[in-house]
Amino acid sequence: AFRGLVGLRLHDELRVKDAYRALLPLAGRTIGSATGAVTMGPADQLLGQFALFLGNEKRARQHFEHAENLSIRLGNELWREAARNSLV
Fold first, then answer.
1. How many other C-beta atoms lie within 10 A of the C-beta of residue 58?
2. Considering Cα of 84, then 23, then 54, then 7, what sign does the dihedral take?
3. Is pLDDT at 7 greater than 80 in this prediction?
4. Rg for the chain (alpha carbons), in Å?
5. Interior CA angle at 24 toward 21 and 29, to 5°?
6. Model pLDDT, residue 45
7. Rounded CA gap, 23 and 37, in Å?
8. Which of 23, 25, 60, 87 has the maximal Cβ count within 10 Å?
9. pLDDT by residue (tens digit) across 31-83?
10. What region, left, alpha or beta, does residue 41 occupy, with left being phi > 0 and alpha being psi -120 to 50 degrees?
11. What is the C-alpha separation between 8 and 49, in angstroms, rounded?
12. Pair 63, 48: CB distance under 8 Å
């Protein structure tokens, strides 16, 4: 996840592609929740950002919708709002 965020910041397509592939198996889950110490929110939120950067708007929209749905199920308004705003 962090590798992809750095890739976005540096406009490094290869880094973002690698992060997207690595994070894809976590779609539908929250990132970091297994540790109990830190969570970054829905994996789909980051996957959507990565897909958008890589030029795949359709895939990005799907990820953002999944992030929004997970956020609603978990009752996290902050994550829901972030996903909803990404859909615009």
1. 7
2. positive
3. yes
4. 12
5. 155
6. 97
7. 19
8. 60
9. 976 666 678 899 999 999 999 999 999 999 999 999 999 999 999 999 999 99
10. left
11. 9
12. yes
- Beta-carbon contacts of 24 under 8 Å, excluding residues fewer than 6 positions away, are 47
What is the residue type of 79? W
Q: How far apart are the first and last CA of the chain?
A: 23
Q: What is the pLDDT of residue 65?
A: 97
Give the residue from 39, 16, 71, 74 showing the smallest Cα distance to 87: 71
Q: What is the pLDDT of residue 35?
A: 64
What's the CA angle centered on 88, arms 3 and 17, to 5 degrees? Answer: 25
The pLDDT value recorded for residue 6 is 94
β-sheet bridge partners, residue 42: 30
The count of residues in the chain is: 88
